[in-house]
From TrEMBL, chains A, B:
<comment type="similarity">
    <text>In the N-terminal section; belongs to the glutamate 5-kinase family.</text>
</comment>
<dbReference type="InterPro" id="IPR005715">
    <property type="entry name" value="Glu_5kinase/COase_Synthase"/>
</dbReference>
<keyword id="KW-0641">Proline biosynthesis</keyword>
<keyword id="KW-0028">Amino-acid biosynthesis</keyword>
<dbReference type="GO" id="GO:0005759">
    <property type="term" value="C:mitochondrial matrix"/>
</dbReference>
<feature type="domain" description="Aldehyde dehydrogenase">
    <location>
        <begin position="322"/>
        <end position="609"/>
    </location>
</feature>
<protein>
    <recommendedName>
        <fullName>Delta-1-pyrroline-5-carboxylate synthase</fullName>
        <ecNumber>2.7.2.11</ecNumber>
        <ecNumber>1.2.1.41</ecNumber>
    </recommendedName>
</protein>
<dbReference type="GO" id="GO:0004350">
    <property type="term" value="F:glutamate-5-semialdehyde dehydrogenase activity"/>
</dbReference>
<keyword id="KW-0496">Mitochondrion</keyword>
<keyword id="KW-0547">Nucleotide-binding</keyword>
<dbReference type="InterPro" id="IPR041744">
    <property type="entry name" value="G5K_ProBA"/>
</dbReference>
<dbReference type="InterPro" id="IPR001048">
    <property type="entry name" value="Asp/Glu/Uridylate_kinase"/>
</dbReference>
<dbReference type="InterPro" id="IPR016161">
    <property type="entry name" value="Ald_DH/histidinol_DH"/>
</dbReference>
<comment type="function">
    <text>Bifunctional enzyme that converts glutamate to glutamate 5-semialdehyde, an intermediate in the biosynthesis of proline, ornithine and arginine.</text>
</comment>
<dbReference type="InterPro" id="IPR001057">
    <property type="entry name" value="Glu/AcGlu_kinase"/>
</dbReference>
<comment type="pathway">
    <text>Amino-acid biosynthesis; L-proline biosynthesis; L-glutamate 5-semialdehyde from L-glutamate: step 1/2.</text>
</comment>
<keyword id="KW-0418">Kinase</keyword>
Length: 755, 755
């Protein structure tokens, strides 16, 4: 109240630069950043003791950003807490120096504490706190300066100008100002009394001090760290509480604040008011957790990199729904999709197939736009994957019709029926998995294909395509939604904005049931790392082997090796290692293999055993676990089929492995013993593919050992549920005193109609 | 060489206390601990900048251990590196103070650096390093002392005694000594020249200094932190390199050292020699990574808690194999098990069933031992779960025979056959998953049951039981191995030592394919958290609902609600929330339900809508997502079946949900729309159980949405592989220029024989 009338605190003056950022990703451009550290961040310990490690990490991040050329400022709390600890220690020491030094015990801990006055603590703690900051920043050759302010400094215009000019001078000299309230001389703050007006803000607490300074200094970004994750729409801990990723000033009415707050003076409501005030003044704000061990290392740099940490305050409300809203819309429409008749899902897919040819011109013109933009940026191979043509669309359309046919018998198929007891019947039936997230690079033809598989299996689908195909993906997605509209399930397939970070999507643990990355091994590995709690379907490596037995046919061996290696060397099902039975060395077959590989320009690397057999060997492999993905392969010698199996188990990736032999016994043993997802006899490794397997299409090839394995088509997008129909049956009916007994009689099920 | 002859450095003298620990878990008892920080740990930066956060975290951990009453010492490196940075900065500043201060740019970074002398750097860095340690330790009220030593200090007996007594005095006063070599006055170390003799050690580098001091000070534990994970059996990075968890002096010949080392003077070989020397002197040693961000927070406390971090040096080689060796043995024997005929697997299970009754006395006497030990420690409910009886063993045996029967048709079943082209045939067949890890608490009857399921499905099995059932588990496991021996696959089932930490097992990512926790929700949650990269089968919550429709039959509703809640309230398939159609309020049915629940002593909590309908309502629920696991439940009112479905989707755990109604349409819609693993009509939720479903037995109930769902029996322990048999077919044969076309003709498969 006592500050309300000072004109300085009204908004118009502060709103001078007014350039807060609209999107998180824009935060990368923030040049001047103010980091506000709540006292929980500076002094409260986590599981491992005190807050020192956390503070050091924050200093690291601030110094790093400073070294990138940004202008960093810190508003710190914690002096009182620091001082408490120090004074306690000093008083006890002066009381009993001798006992403490000679006891050999931690008696200090047990001694009762004198009552300490907060302002004295602040005075005592301030120097220790600054010494710590200085010792830490010195390690980064970063200089710090201490600034203590009281609210009176803001009343006086002269003082305010001095402060302003001091701070600017410090920033200009690459010095990090560390600002705190001068608690030793100001009265202890009263809670919350003057935060009634939105346009007026006091500097009673460090939240408002930080907001005030950020606007005054025209900071681009204010990062307010405390021990809460951010802003929730209801009191955290209640059933429906959701952390808000982005908060818009207009949304304020949708927030319910808790009655009590865990975060010092003012609590969350005061934090939000301070944040909104700073936002109105043109400074972007993120409120985030600076204490949780998991984010300790990187919370500040993560925010500056645009990652979804805490709550971002933005004045610009985006037109479309958020990705969380998209996911909810997709799940809801997906449930309707799953409850449609199979014929209806089939109709939707056929409609999409029609649209692909009917609206060819629109698609190709969008694709042309992407191609024009990409031509100078992408490699020729990538460009080829990006481009669509009339004939590609035709064959896509044909493929979709095949999926439409197989969709007739997917959802709701009865796999097992059991008469558990009289009038108690159990069915296990296929159901969709739920919400799929497919992340794909470049290839826009992936979009209708995956959409068709999702529709056929009754799954909701989130699609995240690459920026390079944005225009093509947009029109293809529109067509998919147009087809879905036939049966009122338009929202079941959603295209996620290219602004969204893959890593953020991978954290939507409770919203997404399965992630399917379609792209490079690196993409898959990145996603496997990022996706904690959501299963990822796919494989990160394809180290495929062809083993040529001593009883192999020359013709077949040559044909299969050539095809496995050369048909498409970058494919995951291409051969990487050729295993040759020892008896074949120095035979004409072996020479023919080498000749063929030379003719095809395949670079050969020798495994250690192979190298030891040769006088002049090719370069020895660095690792037998290499995926070359190019016209290169490793050759290694084995003594027997069993040794080949052992080699593959040890160095392979359980993707696809081949034996070439005329001996059926050897072949069957190989097929039986080998653990890989695909095991072939006298056939090229290149057959490991959903289309070639006759699955219609695939969402990918899985090397996982649970759920779907190998090429994954429609079946891999289904799970099951158990349906039990009774007449009031209870478990107690079957107890020793009960009247019923289990029958467990298997009942016939309709098997698939393989006409 | 120049120190070899000093008698002080021979082992006998140092070996005075000789009490190194045999097992990692013993490290918890370590009272005096020396932590050696390599220069990489102190100064080398990770992805987020410099090493400050890491160092602060180490200080935190040391201070915490010190506060626990342990005596902590630090041997630190890093003075040279610190000094380099400082001198560089100083020189540049003195060269160009003005430009640097007024440029506003980070020009310092770009300026060329003068060459700095290492000893000058050490002198300049030492004070900064100590200041940093002191500033950090001060935050924990922990006092530090600086000790600089040269190797000459160890030559002179007087000096040595002084050093020794100084260190002891410091420890007595709860001061952490921080020790470094006095690099400013000693010649720079020469690499490795005097480490030829094992019994002699120099203090040229900090590894040997630390070892020397640890033994001299009779430390219980020396933790040597650098930037390597520990000791590998081959040079790290090579195909076969494995991190050694424990290293025994006799194993030294099995190590291949790399030619080059990344870790400063001496490298790994010198580290190992220093460690072995300390071990001979009676100090336990752990070499671990102190730089990797992931372990930064806790590497020291993790080691002291006995966790598997880095390489532990032990003189006592345990009798049995390590868990890694057990896993390898299990996988190998498991592959043989999977290749047996179904009848053979069935024989093994029957043999185990026989042994359970034949060797009843042995089993019961082992169980008696466990019971006697547990009687004062466990609750009556837990004791009941631990105890075995003759009749329990009989029914176990009967259950096993049922599994034996169903095992006939598990592994190698053909699920799909396709004629891809002429003479190119594809089969999808069932195969075991691989190596299962089952973690179970208390219940020893779990062991034979799970073993039988693993044998039936051809999987290798690691069993980790609770300490309280150690004797019973041991004899049951012996019997399982005896049965497996019939067909030479004894090792396929391994019992993991009770010493092993569950968390360590969950990290064997490349060795274990599936983890199945059987125990409390807390156990499941802990394992889900710990198991990164290994799928976990199970559920952590069972929030099951019964929805009573307005067209429900009174009798059925009462029976089903009573059974669902009261039959076994602690079970995961017990009802937690009762949803009642609004029209039922104030009807006789509703009163009867309430009366029944009161008679059964079920405590009722009201959902918000239910509470709003009542004048005097029971206590309102805190959360609609509560699993009471006791004679308690929540009652909530819904307006329709659809609202019930929405409520369950929002607050349920997708485990088991029930509708009670006489209206078949309503029921079928509920069964169709609801997403849960088990959906029941007019039957108790308690039927969600593998045995009751007729699956023979279950390994658990899964609420996952991929792979197995609901009660998981034999089928959930199987995956598939694809077998393709050709005659030299290549993908190129099917190209536009090729001679072949895809047929994709579905061939009949033998379906299960449901006689």
């Amino acid at each position: 109240i006592w500050l309300c009338n000072v004109p300085f605190f009204t908004v118009p003056l502060a709103r001078a630069h007014g350039k807060s950022f609209a999107h998180r990703s824009d935060l990368r451009q923030a040049k001047r950043i103010l980091v506000k550290l709540g006292s929980a961040v500076v002094t409260r310990g986590d599981e491992c003791g005190l807050a020192l490690g956390r503070l050091a990490s924050i200093v690291e991040q601030v110094a790093m950003l400073q070294n990138q050329g940004r202008e960093m400022m810190i508003v710190t709390s914690g002096a009182v807490a620091f001082g408490k600890q120090r004074l306690r220690h000093e008083i006890l020491l002066s009381q009993s120096v001798r006992q403490a030094l000679h006891s050999g015990q931690n008696q200090l801990k047990d001694m009762s504490l004198p009552v300490l006055e907060a302002r004295a603590c602040a005075a005592a703690g301030q120097s220790g706190l600054m010494a710590l900051y200085e010792a830490m920043f010195t390690q980064y050759s970063t200089c710090t300066a201490q600034i203590l302010v009281t609210n009176l400094d803001f009343h006086d215009d002269q003082k305010r100008r001095n402060l302003n000019s001091t701070l600017h001078e410090l920033l200009r000299m690459n010095i990090v100002p560390i600002i705190n309230t001068n608690d030793a001389v100001v009265p202890p703050p009263e809670p919350n009394s003057d935060l009634q007006g939105v346009n007026v803000i006091s500097i009673k607490d460090n939240d408002s001090l930080a907001a005030r300074l950020a606007v005054e200094m025209r900071a681009d970004l204010l990062i307010a760290l405390s021990d809460v994750e951010g802003l929730y729409d209801s009191p955290p801990g209640s059933d429906d509480a959701k952390l808000l990723d982005t908060f818009y000033p207009g949304d304020q009415h949708s927030i319910t604040y808790g009655t009590k707050s865990r975060v010092g003076i003012g609590g969350m409501e005061a934090k939000v008011k301070a944040a909104l005030w700073a936002l109105q003044g043109g400074t972007s704000v993120v409120i985030a957790n600076g204490t949780h061990p998991k984010v300790t290392g990187h919370v500040i740099t993560d925010i500056v990199e645009g990652k979804k940490v805490g709550t971002f305050f933005s004045e610009v409300k985006p037109a479309g729904p958020t990705v969380e809203q998209q996911t909810e819309m997709a799940r809801s429409a997906g449930r309707t999709l799953a409850s449609l008749e199979p014929e209806q899902r089939s109709e939707i897919i056929c409609a999409l197939a029609d649209l692909l040819t009917e609206r060819k011109d629109e698609i190709l013109s969008a694709n042309k736009k992407d191609m024009e933009h990409a031509v100078s940026r992408l490699s020729p191979a990538m460009l080829k994957r990006l481009s669509l043509s009339s004939s590609k669309l035709n064959s896509l359309s044909i493929g979709l019709r095949q999926i439409a046919v197989s969709s007739q018998d997917s959802v709701g198929r009865v796999l097992r029926r059991t008469r558990v007891a009289n009038n108690l019947e159990l069915e296990q039936i296929t159901v969709p998995i739920g919400v799929l997230l497919v992340i794909f690079e470049s290839r826009p033809d992936c979009l209708p294909q995956v959409s068709a598989l999702a529709i056929a299996s009754g799954n909701a689908l989130l699609l995240k395509g690459g920026k390079e195909a944005a225009n093509t993906n947009r029109i293809l997605h529109e067509l998919a939604q147009e087809a879905l509209s036939i049966h009122g399930v338009k929202d079941a397939i959603q295209l996620v904005s290219t602004r969204e970070e893959v890593e953020d999507l991978c954290r939507l643990e409770k919203m997404i049931d399965l992630i399917i990355p379609r792209g490079s091994s690196q993409l898959v590995r990145d996603i496997q790392r990022a996706a904690k709690g959501i299963p990822v379907l796919g494989h990160s490596e394809g180290i495929c082997h062809v083993y040529v037995d001593h009883e192999a046919s020359v013709d077949k061996a040559i044909k299969i090796i050539r095809d496995s290696k050369c048909d498409y060397p970058a494919a995951c099902n291409a051969m990487e290692t050729l295993l040759v039975h020892r008896e074949l060395l120095r035979t004409p077959l072996f020479d023919q293999i080498i000749d063929m590989l030379r003719t095809e320009h395949v670079k050969i690397h020798a495994g250690p055993k192979f190298a030891s057999y040769l006088t002049f060997s090719p370069s020895e492999v660095k690792s037998l676990r290499t995926e070359y993905g190019d016209l290169e392969c490793c050759i290694e010698v084995v003594d027997s089929m069993t040794e080949a199996v052992d080699h593959i188990h040890k160095y392979g990736s359980s993707h696809t492995d081949v034996i070439v032999t005329e001996n059926e016994d050897t072949a069957e043993q190989f097929l039986q013993q080998l653990d890989s997802a695909c095991v072939f006899w006298n056939a090229s490794s290149r057959f490991a593919d959903g289309y070639r397997f006759g699955l219609g299409a695939e969402v990918g090839i899985s090397t996982a050992r649970i759920h779907a394995r190998g090429p994954v088509g429609l079946d891999g997008l289904l799970t099951t549920k158990w349906v039990l129909r009774g007449e009031g049956h209870t478990a107690a009916d079957f107890s020793e005193q009960g009247s019923m007994t289990y029958l467990h009689e298997n009942l016939p099920v309709m098997t698939r109609n393989f006409a």
